[in-house]
Design brief:
Order of helices and strands: HHH
Helix content: over 70%
Radius of gyration: 14 Å
Structural class: mainly alpha
Length: 65
């Protein structure tokens, strides 16, 4: 499943964007209420969202034309 997501440009960018959008409120809500688990989940989501595009470029390089 992950391989299919990483091979399709629209799908991996969409997953990355959704994770990024979900991470910001989690981090904000977790830090204002001093809930480390919620802010930690937000940081994990932000980290995964940041790693997806470079990981795709490393694992599936563009074919030369």
């Amino acid at each position: 499943m992950i391989k299919k997501i990483l091979q399709n440009r629209l799908s991996y960018l969409s997953v990355s964007f959704i994770l990024f959008l979900a991470s910001l409120p989690l981090i904000s809500f977790g830090t204002t209420n001093d809930w480390r688990i919620v802010s930690g989940l937000g940081m994990v989501a932000l980290s995964v969202a940041a790693v997806i595009p470079p990981l795709q470029r490393i694992l599936f390089p563009a074919k030369p034309r």
